[in-house]
From TrEMBL:
Organism annotation: Marchantia polymorpha (Common liverwort)
Identification of the protein by name: Prefoldin subunit 6
PANTHER family noted in UniProt: PREFOLDIN SUBUNIT 6
Region (Disordered): 107-128
Highest taxon, organism lineage: Eukaryota
Entry similarity comment: Belongs to the prefoldin subunit beta family.
Length: 128
């Protein structure tokens, strides 16, 4: 009986560890998503500013410490592609977050079941 209890304790520790990892992954996902959301907003502002320019306007791109002249059409295309990429990443992160939250819920249920089994194996002795 003591061996069974020890095995349940080990299972519980494993599940708690897995739950903790999932929670860290959720936090990391939120941080990355926040960064992409900021970048998305910044790129939308740049896109709006580029739309206001005349076709002959000079556009410069900062590459390291140097400003390099860039074609307006090319600049608009680059910003549009960047927005497309960021939007796709945000969608991917949303799907990943949903899956992580589902995993978190199932792990919590497993942990609670294991805790109940451990407590049921010790009636009258208090907490394990």
């Amino acid at each position: 009986m003591a061996a069974a209890k020890k095995e349940l304790q080990q299972q519980l520790e494993t599940q708690v560890s897995a739950l903790s990892k999932i929670q860290k992954d959720i936090t990391k996902n939120h941080q990355v998503r926040r960064q992409y959301t900021i970048q998305h907003g910044e790129n939308e502002m740049v896109q709006k500013e580029l739309e206001l320019l005349d076709d002959e306007a000079n556009v410069f791109k900062l590459i390291g410490p140097v400003l390099v002249k860039q074609d307006l059409v090319e600049a608009k295309a680059n910003v549009s592609k960047r927005i497309e990429y960021i939007t796709a990443e945000l969608k991917r992160l949303d799907v990943t977050l949903k899956n992580l939250e589902e995993s978190q819920t199932s792990k919590r249920e497993e942990v609670m079941k294991l805790q109940q089994r451990i407590q049921a194996g010790n009636p009258g002795k208090g907490r394990p």
